[in-house]
Amino acid sequence: MAARISRRKEPFFSPPLLSRIYNLCPYLKRLKHTCSKEGEVVRLQDITWRSIARERSYDPATWKTLDSSSAGIVNSDISSPTWTVLKILQRKGFDAYLVGGCVRDLLLKRKPKDFDIVTTASLKQIKKNFHHSRVVGRRFQICHVQIRDCTVEVSSFNTTGRHVKERETTHSSQIPTNCNEKDFIRWKNCMERDFTINGLFYDPFNRVIYDYIDGIKDLKTYAHCYSCPFIIHRRFRIAARLGLRFSCEITAAIHELSSSIMTLPKSRLLMELNFMLAYGAAEPSILLLQEFKLLEILLPFHAAYLANQTKSQPTRSSIMLMDIFSNLDKVLSADRPSDSTLW
């Protein structure tokens, strides 16, 4: 990574700053007509991320709720161990919601691979109420609660976020006027999540879905990302599984930052590749990797084979490897993955 950076002719931005710049595409466009490229950099360095995030995203008028029954979600779709955790937290006086990919999948009438819970209880209180549990993670601490033979991931509003040690409990003085405290806490949490479509909350007791950043709208169109360049694999995985498309801004950002995935440890790359290929979306995943010039980096033998076959057989349907992927996808799914040794 250091060698690659040293060869750059342009001023180098650290990954956190670079990801923020890509998140601010609308603001880049606004500044473009008044600043040169060098001038833009100076202007952007003077702008704080927090103030822009508030300007761009804090708008209670855009917050939406959706009755789960109108979306076709039934609580019987929630796994029994997850229900056990939700009910115990509620009985102890804490708010508890399903959040992230499981809400997304329920809206799409797909069976979630797993269920994540976020609660107003602290990690210490979660551990106190569930004897078979343990806190895991360093930067993003969560609690693994063991219910029979299943593990349920439970996070706390007080500890989720990019800088766990810097977070404090939301005080009433921090909450804007005419804003419900619970809404404000949920909004702050969803702003820290990677995709708008993963920022949806579901209250199964009141049967309400909370959407603060147009996640439902984006779910119908494209995966819109607010995160760093090191989750490109995850962007592809979600887009491939759900048949989504990227916005123009995200497409440009991926092309620019795609080589950064090689900074990930080999074990992480293998894990991410397995998530892409072993859960019923191998064919679209391969096509996305190919489109963004990543296949030749991650799977060079596959890339060389496909490139060679494409020259002699222009139609993808006639390529044996893609036929194999396509047929495998028909028998695999998020809850029925193949063994990783296949890859």
From TrEMBL:
Keywords: Nucleotide-binding, RNA-binding, Transferase. The keyword Repeat does not apply. Transmembrane segments: none annotated. GO terms for molecular function: nucleotide binding; nucleotidyltransferase activity; RNA binding. Gene3D superfamilies: Beta Polymerase, domain 2, cca-adding enzyme, domain 2. GO terms for biological process: tRNA 3'-terminal CCA addition. Residues 248-305 form the tRNA nucleotidyltransferase/poly(A) polymerase RNA and SrmB- binding domain. CDD domains: NT_ClassII-CCAase. Residues 96-221 form the Poly A polymerase head domain. Belongs to the tRNA nucleotidyltransferase/poly(A) polymerase family. This is Poly(A) polymerase I-like isoform X2. The lineage of its organism: Eukaryota, Viridiplantae, Streptophyta, Embryophyta, Tracheophyta.
